[in-house]
Amino acid sequence: MIRAPAKKNLLRKNRARIGDPRRVTPQLVGSGTSIAKFAANQSIFVQGEPCDALYYLRTGIAKVSVTSKSGREAVIVILVKDDFFGEGCMLENAPRVATVTTMTECTIERIETAETKRRLRNDPTFLNKFMDFLVRRNRRYIRDVRDQHFQSAEKRLARTLLQLAKGHDNESDAALPRLSQEMLANMIGSTRSRVNFFMNKFRRLGMIGYTGNLDDKLIVNRSLADILSDD
Prior knowledge:
By secondary structure, the chain is α+β, with helices and mostly antiparallel strands. Helices cover 37% and strands 25% of the residues. It has helices at residues 4-18, 113-122, 124-150, 153-165, 181-188, 192-204, and strands at residues 27-30, 33-38, 43-45, 53-59, 62-67, 73-79, 84-85, 99-102, 106-112, 174-177, 208-210, 217-220. A 5-stranded antiparallel beta sheet has the order 1-2-9-4-7.
């Protein structure tokens, strides 16, 4: 448990580093619901804050990270289009256990806790969508644990890149923000040197590439799925 002074310092540090989403002007779309656009590298909420709403990612890519008492950060989940997050609001007096930060420009729907509970009671379409997401995410977590035990770092990296590509709206190859190899290594439980080796291999095989302009992007080709073909 983080003590109060340490928690305040953590919140202040995160706000200073990634910005405050409360500067974004939301568009009200109904009772207890608003939609806002966020630039890349903006926090949606920060570890330790009170849980007061459920969120739905309409477009873009975001990351879920946790920070230790010593200040070390680990990225644990990547959020893509149509993912919910912040469901801890369904628990009484629960603090946020992680920080969510945009990686690209994102459009995000915010649903206040009372409105979330009302929809779950009275809106079968919303209930089915939310439950479908929870089941899919649980399956993803089980698969990630399985991969840590049985899959090579190469396959874990390929799966992570493909998961990121799902946040791309087009059917063509995905152009993603340039990702640090340290972050990718952190996500798949490997080392930066191993990630560098496999990224170079994927590039030689034409499975990934880089745009090479000022707004340098990582291109993930659909052929990268061939790495997982014998799963």
